[in-house]
Amino acid sequence: MFDLIIEGFSLVLNFHTMLLILGGTLLGLMFGLIPGLSATMAVAICLPITYGMGPVEGFALLIGLYIGGSSGGFIPSVLLNLPGTPSSVATTFDGYPMAQKGLAGRAFGISIITSFWAGLISIIVLVLVAEPLAKFALNFGPFEFFAVALLALTLISSLSEGSLLKALIAALLGLTFAFVGSAPIDAYPRFTFGMNELSAGFNMLPVLIGIFAISEMLKIIENKNKISTPGSQLNIDQAKIKGLGWPLKDFWKQKWNFIRSTIIGLGIGILPGIGGGTANLVAYGTAKKQSKYPEKFGTGIDDGVVASEASNNATIGGDMVPLISLGIPGDTVTAMLLGGLMLHGLQPGPLLIEQNGPIVYSIYAALFIANIFMVILLYLGMRGFVKMLSIEKYYLYPIIIALCVVGAFGVNNRLFDAFALLGFGILGYLMVKTKFPLVPLILGFILGPLLETNLRRGLQLSDGSFMPFVTEPISGLFLLATVLSIVFSVIKERKSRMNKSANIAG
Q: What's the burial of 363, exposed, middle or buried (CB within 10 Å: 0-12/13-18/19+)?
C-alpha cells in the first residue's frame, strides 16, 4: 500500500495536475456558495471537459470540484440563512444566529476547521477500508453482485425522503431506461423503435447532466420572480476572520461532538445513495440529544455548526468507499464520478484497485491535496467569495445550460445526445414538481446493467433456478437485508402517516 501511495502522489505532484486541482477546488467553492448550484452540478458540467484529458488529470479536476462544492455551502448558510448545498442545511440552524450576533467570522472559522479535519479523517478511512473491502468483494460471483446491487437500489429508495412508493417507482423507471439498447450477453435489441441512435442505449453523460443540472435550472427559471439577490446588501466586514476564527481551546472542548459527528458522516456516507444532505441533519439532531444544554441549539452555539460541518465533509470519504471498492456510487456526486471512470475506460468494481492501483491512489492524493487547497482558498478568499453572493443569477444560468448542451454533444459528437439531455432534463423537472426523488432513478439507470447481467449469468450457472441467489450465504444475507430495509421503511412511513392523522385530529 505504501508504494502505491507514493506512486499516487508522484502522478499528481506536477504543475499541470496541481493547477487542475486548485482550479477545480476554486470553481467548486463558487458553485457551493451560490444557492441553487451544487457540487453535483459543477461535476456534471465539467465531466465532458475531462474527456480529452488522461484519467489522472481528469479526476484531479473532478475531485477538486467535489471537495470545493461540498465545502462552500456554509457561507450563504451563515450569512443569508440559505444553505448553499443540501449538506449545509443544518449549518443555518446555528450559523445564521451566530452571524446575527456579530460572530460570522467565528462561524466561518468553525466551519473551515471542522470541514478540513473531518474531510482528512474520511480520506484516511477511505484509503484504509476501500482496498480490503475490494479484496473481499473479489470473492463475489454473479449471485452476490446481483444481491449487492439490489440492496443498494432498495436501500436508496427506502431511505429517500417522501413516499416510499414514489421512490421505488423512480428506481424502476431508471431500470427501464437502462434496458434500452442491446441486451447484455446476447445483444438482442430492445426498445429501440427502429432508431439506430438507441441501439447502444442512452449515454450516461446526457442522462446524468439532464436529470441533475438541466432539471435544476428549469426549476430555478420557473421561480425567477421569487429569486432575489440577498447578497447585494451584505456587509462584507461580516466575513472578516481573525486568526483561524476559532481558538484551539474551543475546538478541544468540542472534541467528542466532532468525533461523533465525523463517525455519523462516515457511516451514512458509506451507505449508498444517502450522502451529506441526510448526514448533517442526523448529526445535528444527535448532538442536540446528547447535549447538556439542548435548549441552546438554534440560538447560535458552536455545537450545532461543528456537528453539521463535520458530518458534511466526513461523507466525502465515506461516499467514495462503495464507489472505489464495489463500483456503487455513494451519492449523486459519486454517481457523476462513476460516469467519469467509465468515460476514461476504467471498469468500476472490485478489480479497479487491482488493475489500476496507481490511478486509484492518485485519486486519493487528489482528495488530500484538494482538502488542503480548500482551507487555503477559504481563508485567503473569504471576502471575495462573499462578494460573489451579490452576482445576479440571470447572468449565470444561461451560461450553465449552454455548457451542459455543448458537453453532452461533445462526448460523441451526436446531436441526439443533446436532445436526450433536454429530454431527461424535462423528465427530472416533472419528477421534482410531482415530488418524485431523482436519486433512485439515476441509481436505477446505473445499477440496471449490473443487476441484469449478474441475474442472467447466475440463472445460467444454476440452470434457470433462482434458489442459489437465496441459499448462497453472502447473497442470501444481502437479500435478507434488502427485504428488511423495505419492511422497515414501510413501518416507518405508516407510523408517520398515523402521527400526521393524530395531529390533524388533535
A: buried
Determine how many CB atoms are found less than 10 A away from the CB of residue 480: 13
Decide: 331 and 274 in contact? Cβ < 8 Å.
yes
In this prediction, residue 232 carries a pLDDT of 44
Q: How far apart are alpha carbons 182 and 453 in whole angstroms?
A: 12
- Between the alpha carbon of residue 80 and those of residues 34, 98, 276, 366, the distances in Å are 11, 12, 20, 31
Nearest-angstrom CA–CA distance, 361 and 471: 37
- Please give the residue that has the higher pLDDT: either 166 or 276: 166
Whether residue 506 is contained in a domain is answered as no
Q: pLDDT tens digits for 97-141? A: 888 888 888 888 888 889 899 999 999 998 888 888 888 877 778
C-alpha grid cell, residue 488: 422497515
Contacts of 346 (CB under 8 A, 6+ apart): 55, 352, 356, 359
- Asked if 451 contacts 458 with a C-beta cutoff of 8 angstroms, the reply is no
Q: Which residues contact 334 (CB under 8 A, 6 or more apart)?
A: 319, 320, 322, 323
CA neighbor of 93 nearest in space, from 81, 110, 84, 105: 81
At 422, list the grid cell: 433536454
Q: What is the 8-class DSSP label of residue 464?
A: T
pLDDT at 42 over 50: yes
Q: Are 164 and 451 in contact (CB under 8 A)?
A: no
pLDDT at 235: 53
As a whole number of Å, the end-to-end CA separation of the chain is 61
Number of domains in the chain: 1
DSSP 140-174: --HHHHHHHHHHHHHHHHHHSSS-HHHHHHHHHHH
Q: At what angle do helices 357-388 and 15-33 cross, to 10 degrees?
A: 50
* Cell numbers that stand for 18 in this block: 496541481
Domain that holds residue 388: 2-500
Is-contact 47 340, C-beta < 8 A? yes
Which residues are 181's β-sheet partners?
190
In-domain check, residue 161: yes
Q: Which residue has the cell 442545511?
A: 89
Distance separating alpha carbons of residues 326 and 72, to the nearest angstrom: 29
Q: What is the rounded CA–CA span in Å between residue 462 and residue 457?
A: 9
Q: Is the residue at 196 inside a domain?
A: yes
Spatial CA neighbour of 54 closest among 17, 21, 22: 17
Q: Is residue 377 part of a domain?
A: yes
